[in-house]
Write a structure and sequence with these properties.
Length: about 550
């Protein structure tokens, strides 16, 4: 279990994933040991079932009150053990990634984590615990005979109460099942890869922070893009761009509530400042600024991949592509008939004004490269998208005659076509000042800046496929980004190539690549950020919003083909 409290962007108490056993774990398994024989999500839910011979463990966050944080400031992880063997449980929380001593106290009906700044208890009625010393820490261990019936473990965060819940476990499980399955049943999913689309939608829904409306890029930190390397980043935050794209994918499936909540979150951030052009690329789920990026030297990293980072220095970068996805999302909501208000129109105006002031500047781009800023083609196209979609939204809210905006849109387009296209490369390139190829430039056609039959877009699609595709995956770029080591192919770029191939009339090729992308999902239907085609393994933080939203968009596009 990977578990951060009190929020997903807080310190982890179970961090074995990136730090080994000393970083904390909550283990359940047969007393005789052995690896699980299988794992699956139960139907269209986020209830996870793990099986061994003679033992089944079902894990879920209690949503019986209508959302995962059914009680303010509290979350309950429920683990139900069923079977006909003896099982062993090891409860080994480690405060702040194991950097602070963790002491436990056995109480009636469970265990209390002593001295934690955020209250935490494990309710386990009828279970006899043994406390083991492990240096500064303590671990609680128990053996359970499941012949006597199922055992329920409730990890409660945000409360010190070990009292029985007013609702029994079976009813809580049924309600939680219904929370997810009823939502999934209301989606308008295509027949093409329908089960995978629903799973991807559930991932995006699960990445939504219900109390605030923020949407996470991923729930993990420092899962490596290169095993043993330093490309390990913290994605447990809300990127303006990523969140807007996630919300847009859900709107396309017929669910607008996540998008409306996200826009409310953005509006609250804008209320605190009068210079929208200075918006940061990402924020905590609360809408506050991140702490400085730091490395946790005590953690060994996943498969020895160090450092393990918390925070993300990209927060201080200039990324001028963040405005376009937000306005594109508003336009989608207009088309969906969502109840937009004058506040949303003011949000659109703020995004256009931000572009007016800064579109001509260099930035760090979508890939947040830690080198001097450049005039990135993708960022310029997203500035164009901001104004283009704003003009469409204007027809819904006001007089559509926006002469200044039209002139700005044309000016940005002319700039991209003059400086972004490189005849010597026969492609749009990553930035104005170089000939290096970048798959993100596919937005030149995907956004509508160029029509799909424009020879320059067709040539760019061919160049990306030829230079950046490797089997079932597409690399973001090959150029030196200033970091040692390599990385895998990027699932979202595979999805963008799928859409681009379809746009240029190569639908059969698009469908074939899409099928290969779907096949890269893990046994539970989750996609990481990247894929290593040389070793056949997933890389990067997991699961990744980008990967799942790209798959959703592909399926919707190809289903209409």
């Amino acid at each position: 279990v990977w578990w951060c409290v009190p929020r997903i962007d807080s310190a982890a108490v179970f961090a074995e994933l990136v730090g080994g056993p000393a970083a904390g774990a909550f283990r359940v398994g047969p007393a005789g040991g052995g690896r699980p024989s299988g794992q699956r999500y139960v139907g269209d839910t986020l209830l996870l079932e793990t099986r061994w011979p003679g033992l089944t463990v079902t894990d879920y966050l209690d949503c019986s009150g209508g959302r995962p944080d059914r009680l303010a400031g509290r979350s309950d992880l429920i683990r139900v053990l069923e079977g006909d063997i003896r099982a062993v449980v090891e409860f080994a929380p480690r405060l702040d990634f194991g950097r602070y001593a963790t002491r436990l106290a056995v109480r009636d009906d469970g265990i209390e984590v002593v001295g934690a700044s955020d209250l935490m208890v494990l309710r386990a009625p009828g279970v006899s615990w043994e406390l083991l010393e492990d240096g500064l820490h303590q671990t609680a261990r128990a053996e359970i005979d499941l012949h006597d019936g199922p055992v329920t473990l409730e990890l409660r965060c945000g409360t010190a109460s070990l009292k029985a819940d007013a609702t029994d476990e079976a009813d809580r499980r049924t309600s939680t099942d219904g929370f997810w399955s009823d939502w999934a049943a209301g989606l308008d999913t295509p027949d093409l890869a329908g089960a995978m689309v629903r799973r991807s939608a559930l991932v995006l829904k699960g990445l939504c922070h219900a109390p605030t409306g923020a949407i996470l890029a991923a729930p993990t930190t420092s899962l490596p893009e290169h095993l043993g390397g330093v490309r390990n980043w913290d994605y447990r935050y809300c990127w303006l761009r990523d969140a807007a794209l996630s919300a847009a994918a859900l709107v396309r499936l017929g669910s607008a509530e996540e998008a409306m909540a996200y826009l409310d979150w953005v509006l609250r951030i804008l209320e605190q400042r009068d210079d929208p052009e200075r918006l940061h690329p990402l924020y905590l789920v609360t809408g506050r600024h991140l702490p400085p990026e730091a490395e946790i030297a005590e953690l060994a990293g996943y498969a020895g991949s160090r450092p393990v980072r918390v925070g993300n220095a990209a927060e201080r970068q200039v990324q001028l592509d963040v405005f376009g996805p937000i306005v594109d999302l508003v336009q989608l909501l207009v088309q969906a008939g969502a109840p937009l208000s004058s506040q949303h129109w003011r949000l659109v105006e703020a995004m256009v004004h931000a572009v007016e002031r800064r579109w001509h500047e260099p930035d760090h781009g979508i890939w947040e490269i830690r080198k001097p800023p450049r005039h990135h083609v993708h960022s310029k196209v997203m500035c164009w998208t901001t104004v283009d979609r704003a003009l469409a939204v204007a027809e819904h809210f006001t007089d559509p005659d926006q002469h200044e905006w039209r002139a700005l849109r044309d000016q940005i387009a002319d700039d991209v076509l003059e400086h972004g296209w490189k005849p010597g490369v026969s492609a749009f390139t990553a930035a104005y000042d170089g000939s290096d190829l970048d798959a993100s430039v596919l937005v030149v056609g995907l956004s509508g800046l160029l029509p799909p039959d424009d020879p320059r877009f067709v040539a760019t699609v061919e160049a990306v496929e030829r230079e950046l595709r490797e089997g079932p995956t597409v690399y973001r770029y090959r150029a030196d980004d200033g970091l040692p080591g390599t990385e895998g192919g990027f699932h979202l770029m595979t999805s963008w190539l799928v859409d681009a191939l379809h746009l240029v009339g190569r639908t059969a090729d698009a469908r074939a690549l899409f099928e290969r992308l779907v096949a890269l999902a893990g046994p539970t239907g989750l996609l990481a950020e990247e894929y290593d085609p040389d070793h056949g393994r997933s890389l990067g933080n997991h699961p990744q919003a980008y990967s799942h939203l790209g798959l959703i968009n592909n399926a919707l596009t190809l289903a209409r083909a």
